[in-house]
Amino acid sequence: MNSDEQKLEYHHRGFFARLPSQPHHLTERVTPTEQAIVLCHLGIPKLSRESWRLHIRGLVRQSLVLTFDDIAEFDRHEVESVHQCAGSPLRPDEPSQRVCNLVWGGVPLSSILSKVTVFPEARYLWSQGADSGRFGDVDCGPYIKDLPLDRIGQNVLLAYEMNGRPLLPEHGAPVRLVVPGFYGTNSVKWLTSLTLGEGRADSPFTRRWYLDSDADGERTIPVWRTAPQSILVSPPPDNRDCECGKLMRIRGWAWGDQGVDHVDVSVDGGQSWLEAQLEPERGHAWRQFTCDWVPPLPGHYSITSRAGSPDGTIQPAGGRRNALYAVPVTVR
Ligand SMILES: Nc1nc2c(c(=O)[nH]1)N[C@H]1C(S)=C(S)[C@@H](COP(=O)(O)O)O[C@H]1N2
Ligand SMILES: [Mo]
Description:
Elements: H1 3-7, E1 9-13, E2 16-18, E3 38-40, E4 43-46, E5 53-58, E6 64-67, H2 68-72, E7 77-84, E8 99-108, H3 109-113, E9 124-135, E10 138-148, E11 157-162, E12 165-166, E13 176-178, E14 191-197, H4 204-208, E15 211-213, E16 220-222, E17 229-234, E18 248-255, E19 262-266, E20 274-275, E21 277-278, E22 287-293, E23 299-308, E24 326-331
Parallel strand pairs: 5-14
Antiparallel strand pairs: 1-4, 2-3, 5-6, 7-8, 8-11, 9-10, 9-14, 11-12, 11-13, 15-16, 17-18, 18-22, 19-20, 19-23, 21-22, 23-24
The structure holds ligand MTE and molybdenum atom.
């Protein structure tokens, strides 16, 4: 343990999560902060803007240390983006709908990196948080993630605001990384250092967990880019106002890092599909889809939505985090 870690105080020590997002509660385009997911593997460290420092090191000509005021001097940018937890790293294939859509304010990482000379061998950016400790019976050291350097042009942000307010402690105050289009796990909170590296970072969060097997099961791929996914906001489960012969508007959100070019809706548990209307793309923010349906007969129905990306990938029936799920509806 170095002297920085010894000095560090915590609001909360150890795993902490708030995952309130029941899809039908996510009625708003920008998720209110109280409804946003919170996921902390190791705890919630206490950091102040005044004493916070960001170290930039590794394959750069000269390392750099920035204060909060240094960061605040750069032009402020805003990015609206889906913020999705990939689910428990101990149960990576479990389908989940832990998601929200937030507006982040801060400085593009590219502006910060333009202040250093990056050596051509550098291919990855390692990002480290102030938090350290145990997770899943493993002594993890600090929370460290990485991302390919060529991703940085895509709105990667050093964020100090969420939904127009300074970051709350649990969301990474005073400054965190935000990687739009990647799963939330990559958006390192309580950011303290950025290291330019030739290979991937060496941490349980990059080498032991957050690795998926590809379609053939032959290779592992880092849990980086979000797969196509959709959630149903309306009707809510077990809705009582559905009437036979009365038009029902089925509505929800869809997203995916490769883009989503269609969403289909099924009312019969996935046996047949109707095409939903999808609003135009809006960067890495989620997109609304709607589908009008007139229930022909009273009875029990099972509503499902399925997003697909231009390369032909669609949400799978099961066994993946972006698998389909169904909303039961009774029609009178
Ligand atoms: N330093 C640090 N950053 C972290 C984490 C963490 O445990 N420590 N959790 C990650 C995970 S798994 C998710 S889903 C997001 C959650 O961000 P939020 O709590 O602001 O919603 O933060 C990511 N960044
Ligand atoms: Mo997560």
